[in-house]
Amino acid sequence: MADKMSVREGVRNSAVIKNPVLFEAIGIAPVVAMAISVKTAIMLSVIASVELVIIESFACLLLKKVKQSFRVLIYAVLGVLINMPLFMFFNRFAPNETANVSIFIPVIAVNSLIALHCERIAVKNDFRTTLVDAISAGIGYVFIIMLLGILREVIGSGTFYSFDLKFPVKFSGLLLPFGGFLLLGFLAAFFKNAIKKKYPDEKPEAAFNLSEISEMHFDEIKTAVEEDFNPFVDFFAAKDEGGETAEAEAVPEKKKSIFKKSDKKEKPEKEKKSKKAETVEAEPLVDVQPVKDEKPAPERSGVYESEFDDILAELEAAKAKPEEPAEEAIEEIAEEPADETEGGDEQ
Question: In the prediction, which pLDDT does 272 show?
Fold first, then answer.
């Protein structure tokens, strides 16, 4: 964006071609959650536009030399401070609508729309350019909020500013968050087609590219990682400049004393070890002879021997003998009684 820019160019770029909600896709959560009627859309539009103009102007005037991480915290604190009185104002004049969306009002205080435009425009340009961007981005944001709130109330509730339109059919699903996303998708497609016809050279989808923000803070992140979170930066820097002398100076005196004590403790241990080694070498070696009376231990075989092995061997040998023929056995049995009778007669 140029340093000097007219309000017309600012509105065309920030509100139409780079619409915050439709094409940059930022600040969608409050829109989907709160823009369910005309009254809630008005409430959201006032709070968001006031916060955007005040915080972006404050960042341009006072926060250019502050680190990016601290700037984001300041944006959130300022958003809360601006949000509180506005919430009390709407709670007094529209208590019902404020109660319905009160849980989502704190989300506006940390709206990503504010942080993005502050980092992209406010901290890099003069106050005039910043103010034009804040007004034009606020116009584009409010336009989508009001359009979405009217459509959701008319189609979803069948009313307009709480006045009953007596529609026969009501699509109450559009009052839910998924209904808001659905309508935003159709609105983005419709306005993208219209912008392509009127401005053929423009590319609204390119507004979603946030590479410029990442490139802007790449150097800050690099220095934070290398310096802010590295406790040895000073030590190694001193070593590179002065060599060993600088390294010795960088070491605290307490650490030096610790190192000295450790050196003193190690020396006696080494001396003790050397003395022990000398004593071991000085002792004469004694020949140890084996005792002759002792019997050598019986050698053990790897096979297990039991007391039943002999019995089993005899049984196997008996089975291996050839069996006597049956006729001889019968003759022997027949002869035995005859012998016995003969012996009895002799007696």
Answer: 53
Q: Where are the domains of the chain?
A: 7-209
Closest by CA to 115, choosing from 154, 77, 164, is 77
The pLDDT value given to residue 306 = 58
pTM value surpassing 0.90: no
In this prediction, residue 118 carries a pLDDT of 93
Residue with tokens 């984001």: 72
Judged against a pLDDT cut of 90, whether residue 54 lies above it is answered with yes
